[in-house]
Structure formats: C-alpha cells, structure tokens
Amino acid sequence: MKSKKLILIGLMFVILSCNNDDESQQAEIDGEYVGIFERGDNNSNVELTFNNGNWSGESEVVKFPALCNGTYSSSINVITFKNACPWTAEFDWSLILTGEWNYSLDGNSLILTKTNGDKYTLTKQ
Prior knowledge:
The chain is an alpha+beta fold. It has one helix at residues 2-29; strands at residues 31-39, 42-51, 54-59, 69-75, 78-83, 99-106, 109-113, 119-124. The protein has a single domain (2-124), classed as Lipocalin (Beta Barrel). Residues 1-20 form the signal peptide.
C-alpha cells in the first residue's frame, strides 16, 4: 500500500513539472516579433505577437502566409498553433499558421520551421 502512494505522489510530481515547463516556454516566447516568412523562393514581411498562449499576426502579402489569430502551446522545440479565424477556399490552406512547428529561440531571435520547408525568421521587438 505504501509503495502505491509513493508511485502516485511521484506521478503527480512529474505531471506538475511538465505543466510548469510548458508555461515557462510560453513566457519565454511571449512578445512582439517582426521578420520574414519564406516558402521556396517567395517571402513576405510579417509581424507576430505571442501573449500568454494567444497569438496574432499580419503579413505584408495577403494570405502569404495566412495570419490572423488563435492560441498556441509550446514544449521543448515545438510550438503547436490553433487558428481561430475562418478562411475562404481560394488559396493554399497550407499557408495558414496552424499545427506543429519546430522552433529555436536564441536571445531575441525566434525561428519557426515546418516539415514542408516553410520558415519564419523573427526578431523580438
């Protein structure tokens, strides 16, 4: 019986530690960023703001990339975006900022990369 209690306490500690890491990652990412979005040989100036699990953004080129607003969560080296905006059907929906992105954060530099080669290179303001 005593060993079951210890296992439960240990499991709760691990779960709580993971949640704190996610919150710490989000706080580290929070801020206003400017930079470029790249897909192949095309690029666009962008602005993204991260604030306590919410994001919003704008692009110099309409729907390249398709930015609006939504929520995000992060863990070590991965940000998962959920887009909260409705979109029309006349463009490539893979340009919508949604799903899992790898990221690296080095000082004021945030780089987001997708497995299809899309890339955001951003600088915190």
